[in-house]
Amino acid sequence: MDKDTLTIIDNRTNQTYMIPIHRGTIRAMDLRQIKTGPEDFGLMTYDPAYMNTAACQSAVTFLDGEKGILRYRGYPIEQLAEHCSYLEVAYLLIFGELPTMEELLAWEREIGQHTMIHENVKKFMDGFHHDAHPMGILISTVAALSTFYPDSHRIQDAASRRHQVVRLIGKLPTVAAYAYRHRLGRPYVYPDPELSYTKNYMNMLWKMTEPKYAANPVLARALEVLFILHADHEQNCSTSTMRAVGSSNADPFATMAGAIAALSGPLHGGANEEVLLMLDEIGTVSNIPGFIAQVKEGKRKLMGFGHRVYKNYDPRARIIKKVAEEVFEVTGRNPKIDIALALERIALSDEYFIKRKLYPNVDFYSGIIYEAMGFTPDQFTVLFAIPRTAGWLAQWQELMQDPDRKIARPRQVYVGEERREFVPITARSAAEPAKVAR
Ligand code: CMC
């Protein structure tokens, strides 16, 4: 008997099936042959939230949640965060290899040439209300970019795909910075391709009347490291959205707008904003036990804690803690770090969190650093979206070249009414409230 197989006995029929195992998985479609009779549709798996379903094969990011390992294209995140620039890591994610010096310079130049946005995009952004959430602006504006670049529909054309990748990585900081300035009523600052990726972003955010904005090099490097840590994270909610939307052959701008929308939720990228609001609410270390009690009673969530995949310390959180100290040397200590550290200490010694393997994730400390650097909490998730662009696009490129690619289309287990006859409106009585979603 082939050892790399799974033997299934269907007790309904006493039939035995042998299913091949490849790389620790079975193909869900191999279960379809398991039927009680010719009328039976065949066996499916039920996996809401994809707790145990691999939806693709990927060579981009490796993550071992039990051991707390994260690697991009085989390189440990710790080494990349220490030695690379963000654009170097973006190149690695997109093309699979670290660039040579020559390749990196050409890549930086290419991205720099695509940082401008059309003047009409500015006008489009002007239409948003002054207090519009920057993530709402980002989602809509990235979707709108699709209308400015109709050539992006040619998703089967490798050269066109590469062009859109460069455009998106180049333009995201510009759109994000304009959303920030719009909010403050400040004039937009054009991108400066002479500057590094993070320095250019900081220039567009904070330049006032000075002829040349000089970003603090420690803060620019800290932002670079944070961008590297956020660049990819395999099949998370927003990346799966990127793949799901992309599988319909939508253009990459529309596709990435979907991914940004998924990221904006407080259980995903939006958590960094929620952490800061939570720390504000807790206010002092003495209020922590009361807050933890509420979490254990199920009334609250400890935002920035827990992860679907990491059941060990998130390696990104460990690096972020170090970055925080470097940033505070420049900006002064954000007092919220002491509440966060105390919160972590108390939570990690509590049976509730130990039993559930709940550790701080990337979002627990990032907001405290961003706040010290001068960002308001509503910008935090934007600071996640900018660098994740490289990861989303690397995964999208992989999807586009995947011979197994088909439109994403899950099945369902239908639990609704059986066939019933139409009732004219005059003969209907109100349905029981419990039976209908209102
Ligand atoms: N605070 C309190 N309890 C929690 C938390 C938390 N943050 N996270 C999970 N739990 C509990 C949960 O109530 C459940 O308990 P029980 O077994 O008694 O029902 C148990 O831990 C397992 O949790 P789960 O909800 O089944 O886990 P999940 O894998 O479905 O959810 C998560 C993962 C990240 C959505 C969740 O941990 C969470 O909501 N965390 C807070 C939001 C957050 O920080 N999100 C950022 C994620 S990392 C950055 C990113 O990639 O977006």
> What is the second-level CATH architecture of the largest domain?
Orthogonal Bundle
Strand order across the largest sheet? 3-4-5
> Into which percentage range does the β-strand content fall?
5-15%
Largest sheet: 3 strands, antiparallel
Tell the overall outline: globular
Low-pLDDT residue intervals, each spanning 5 or more residues: none
Annotation field: number of helices:
17
Give the structural class: mainly alpha
Compute the number of strand runs. 5
Mean pLDDT across all residues, rounded? Answer: 95
CA-based gyration radius: 24 Å
Classify the fold: give the CATH topology of the largest domain. Answer: Citrate Synthase, domain 1
Q: Look at the structure and name the CATH superfamily of the largest domain.
A: Citrate Synthase, domain 1
**Fraction of residues in helix:** 40-55%
The CATH C-level name of the largest domain is: Mainly Alpha
